[in-house]
Amino acid sequence: MEMRVKAVTIMILLPVILYCIPCGESGGRGRSLVQRSPALGVDYGKTADNLPPPSAVAKMVQNTTISKLRLYEADPAILQAFANTGIGLVVGIGNDQIPSLSQLTVAQNWIKNNIVPFVPATDIIGILVGNEVLFTGDGALISQLLPALQNLHTALVGVSLDQQIKVSTPHSMALLSSSVPPSAGRFSESFDMKSLLDFLQKIGAPLMINPYPYFAYKSNPTDQTLAYSLFKPNPGFYDTNTGLTYTNMFDAQLDAVYSAMKYLGYTGIDIVVAETGWPSVGDPTEAGASLQNAIAYNGNLIKHVTSMAGTPLRPNRYIHTYIFSLFNEDLKSGPTSERNYGLFKADMTMAYDVGLLQSPSAGPSPAPRTGGPVTATPPLAGGSVTSPPTRTGGPVTAPPTGKVWCITKPGADEKTLEANLNYACGQGIDCRPIQPGGPCYSPNTVACHAAYAMNAYYQAAGRNSWNCDFAQTGTLTSTDPSYGGCVYQTV
Questions:
Q1: Angle, in degrees to the nearest 10, between helices 139-158 and 193-203
Q2: pTM for the full model?
Q3: Of 1, 23, 184, 189, which alpha carbon lies 20 to 30 A from 13's?
Q4: DSSP string, 423-473
Q5: What contacts 390, CB < 8 A, 6 or more positions away?
Q6: What is the DSSP letter of 52?
């Protein structure tokens, strides 16, 4: 059953070597015709009787800056519709399926039937098991959650998809027993978080949370709380323990979770926001549910999570975030707000404009490179810029465990690297970080800029080993090549 929940980088500095210090993160996914945000996802719920067919939805999403969608079930029609679109999909599993998935054979069959037939054409990047399971009060269900997660991961390993697809489970902010100030964030002792965090750390998966500043404001509707919730100018909140000032509730909520993980000894697990949003319509008794506030929250949220500002405790990074939701869902139960979280209406017109739409005929539009060592080839009308550099020899083999990045091989031919850079930047990825003034512009060399673009393409194209071949000038590494404010991303 679909329910809105209320409540995928380990950074290591590399030594400076000749072939580059890689920089940045992918901006788009696949060979889409629009420039996409690597951090921006949306939740695709279907509790409605008037939604367009998945094929129409796929075309619509391709004409937006959305790079990935979260589904609440393994719907084969949706998985098929998004094949070859370059949109990443996170597939959900309902709470009712968790008990059976605590058996390995059931988990293996689930992967075989719901995942394997659709990859690699469909870019499935994650599986979310259950919905706020820790807060159901069902002891038996809670005890079966981790075995289900472990079995699904084991099943993915069995079909060599564990590097591409990560398994996790979403939580509301009730996961914390304390969150103010953010540095005092602690997990509730009612839950065995260490076992779950051990698992996530082992497989390189993120902790999924669902911060909703709307609910915090609804419970304390003051002008100052509203500005703090909507990313608007406000006095901010000063954390005396860290000396950091928080100017929005979203960052404070995330950093409270970071602090809770750090308190238990976990500092290398990323956080992904599985749900957050703001209703555009509500009942008269629902404080803050309005079109104006929805535009402010989601518009400012999108700017924030895609800006690489990060949070005060974890700055200089994208915050991978799924906004609830793609459509208004007319069959949702509860107050009016529950049926009005959509960014789009059922007829696929925008419920309101927060800058998601782009022209489908615009073509990929990396920013012009001025002053850099090379200039990206302009895209051909309506298609990709050129063929990727010819592959030679066998496929590159990814490290067996952990996250993976694509970088240039030492001594790679500069002319080939220039071709790699031109090709990758022409595929719709965001090459702005390697433009002058960008966080990854220095060092200003063909090798460095090519490595950034090659990794961006590799991550966007599905993270298959052949996507990092580049005529044998690329290689995969499990050591994060990020440095300074330049972040190399992996999902």
A1: 10
A2: 0.69
A3: 184
A4: HHHTTT---GGGSTTSTT--S--HHHHHHHHHHHHHHHTT--GGGG-TTTT
A5: 471
A6: P
DSSP state of 290: S
What is the rounded CA–CA span in Å between residue 21 and residue 298?
A: 34
DSSP string, 200-257: HHHHT-PEEEE--HHHHHHHS--HHHHHHHTT-----EEETTTTEEESSHHHHHHHHH
Return the structure tokens found at 208: 């999924």
- pLDDT tens, residue by residue, 326-383: 999 999 999 999 999 999 999 999 999 998 987 433 333 333 333 333 333 222 222 2
Q: CA 324, CA 297: separation in Å to the nearest integer?
A: 12
In what helix (H) or strand (E) does residue 276 lie, and over which residues does it extend?
Answer: strand 271-276
- So which residues are the catalytic ones? 132, 275
* Domain over 40-339 is classified CATH 3.40.50.300: no
Structure confidence at residue 284 as a pLDDT band (50, 70, 90): very high
Q: Could you state, in order of their start, the residue ranges of all structural domains in the chain? A: 9-24+364-491, 40-339
User: For the segment 81-105, what is each residue's pLDDT rounded down to a tens digit?
Assistant: 999 999 999 999 999 999 999 999 9
HEC profile of 116-127: HHHCCCCCEEEE
Residue type, 343: L
Q: What are 193-246's pLDDT values in tens digits?
A: 999 999 999 999 999 999 999 999 999 899 999 999 999 999 999 999 999 999
pLDDT given at position 178 = 95
Across the chain, which distance is largest between two alpha carbons, in Å?
Answer: 66
**Three-state secondary-structure class, residue 145:** helix
pLDDT of residue 221: 93
> What is d(CA 297, CA 352) in angstroms, rounded to the nearest whole number?
12
Decide which of 155 and 419 is more confident. 155
| 452 alpha-carbon distance from chain centroid | 19
What is the four-CA torsion angle of 214, 215, 221, 226, rounded to 10 degrees?
-20
Chain centroid to CA 467: 20
CA-closest candidate to residue 419, choices 390, 440, 379: 390
Q: Which two tokens stand for residue 23?
A: 């920089």
> In DSSP terms, which residues pair with 154 in a beta bridge?
none
Which candidate, 491, 4, 83, places its Cα nearest to that of 278? 4
The pLDDT score that the predictor gives to residue 35 is 56
